[in-house]
Here is the input.
Amino acid sequence: MTYEDILAARARLDGHAVRTPLLSAPQIDALAGRRVLVKAECLQRTGSFKFRGAWNCISALPDEQRKRGVVAFSSGNHAQGVALSSALHGIPAVIIMPSDAPATKIDATRDYGAEIILYDRFTEDRDAIGEALAAERGLTLVRPFDDPQVIAGQGTCGLEIAEQAREARVTDATVLVCCGGGGLSSGIALALEGAAPGLRVRPVEPAGFDDFRRSLEAGTPQVNAPGQTSVQDAIVTPTPGKLTFPIGHRLFGPGLASTDDEALHAVALAWKWLKVVVEPGGATALAAALFQPEKIDGDTVIVTASGGNIDPAMFRRALDTV
Amino acid sequence: MTYEDILAARARLDGHAVRTPLLSAPQIDALAGRRVLVKAECLQRTGSFKFRGAWNCISALPDEQRKRGVVAFSSGNHAQGVALSSALHGIPAVIIMPSDAPATKIDATRDYGAEIILYDRFTEDRDAIGEALAAERGLTLVRPFDDPQVIAGQGTCGLEIAEQAREARVTDATVLVCCGGGGLSSGIALALEGAAPGLRVRPVEPAGFDDFRRSLEAGTPQVNAPGQTSVQDAIVTPTPGKLTFPIGHRLFGPGLASTDDEALHAVALAWKWLKVVVEPGGATALAAALFQPEKIDGDTVIVTASGGNIDPAMFRRALDTV
Here is the structure.
């Protein structure tokens, strides 16, 4: 995992991914008490940054291997990134999804042309299903975050942040990144180390799922207590990745955590002032900027709005907060 | 009004306006039956393209004149564009708004730092109020569309469409533009004439407010029947502008009109698949692409999503359609 891997990923993504804008609004700045620049990855293809890593990983496979197709486990944004990347490459994709995943996410993944295999989370072993499929059809597994090419793909978002911050004359700032397994956070951190060393990543997680925050503090990977739930469903992974944690340990500042109420309020404020649709898990970094300003340094903060795949009922719930 | 005026406007806007992205989604393409590229001007500063024209007009004023300040009449998006442009220039702005304008729009305009003067639409003469103010304080009137510098500012959106279409390898397409007084439509048409002659503007208006469509057909300006209402409130002007109509007559293809139901459905589909917040009047072009495909030629259509200033109740109403 080097800066050069991210530059190579950028070349692969050129002309295929959206260069998402860095948005701002004076009303958001006023609420946060400092300048807030929002990297709107919800505008990425498939509605989240996950397209970047999936596209890069699939593009980097040897031709013969890629042609046989790919398989992924996901109930959400990674599923859609892999499905669309595969469709654009003209290769088969099998996505293994829990049968109780939201119908809207299953439908969207199928819309992008993937074969969906539903499994029962309580009685079936998804890894066994995936391994059997991979062996039988020669499919390659595309991991959601703990893969060098996936991290490099997400890192292209960091290269854009570096360029866009420079255009906005920002050379010294905290970059709050919505963090689940840490693929986006670690990719951005590696990109910024090379391209904009004055910008430093701090991961933001859902309250109760702050394994990365606690792991950074402890210096070793920690695991979340089981049995919790969160509306920030896109980023409720149990523990940091094997590849992402060492990168984070070396490069991240201290982690933060936002409550579900804060995330829903941030969804509504992004709707109101930035005109973008963000899901709760994609709004957790903005929520930290808005509602925990005392924990952040400096006169400018950059935040990722990582995804926007939210159903109407949840969106209405968010609108109730403004 | 020449292409060079638009190039000059671009230089003035550089570093101040957002270069809004050209978005797409396979689900939108499938619904429309052709490729649809959406110029997301709802992501422009103040939530609509109006910032471009206001910024250009105010920037182009002689220093002494600008310092005295500006005045504008508007109940919506132009108000916010003028208010923020003035605040950024550090000059006073007075916006004359009807006392029954939506509270959210009045509040947003005040947020941008403008002085608001409310008048009673039924008993007071806004022109007289404006003229008295302009004379007393030496303010310059910034017109919403019928001004060469305003049209040139909106034309910068057309320069970006030309570049972004080229990047997407589109050189021949219809460009559907949400049309009220015709400032955006005529600015884009002039820009495309110079920068991408294979792209041709067709204005889209609310049903019942299709004065531009009928004027183009008749060859002379027509007026809408009074007493009608529309949720597409941003673009319900009574008749084409004195400057915009001749440009449209020379450069526009035939006009189209979308019903309120179509516009609200387009708002919801933009929310669902493009992750942008669009107001009904800013969704009328997308609505035509989605629901009147038989009236459009070619395998690609470009549409403007012109603005996103919508209140929560109207947005909930739109969400009911998906």
Remarks:
- Chain B has a mean pLDDT of 95.
- The interface with chain A takes residues 15, 18-21, 23, 25-27, 30, 40, 42-43, 45, 47, 84, 87, 108, 111-112, 167, 271, 273-278, 308, 312, 315-316, 319, 322 of chain B (CB under 8 Å).
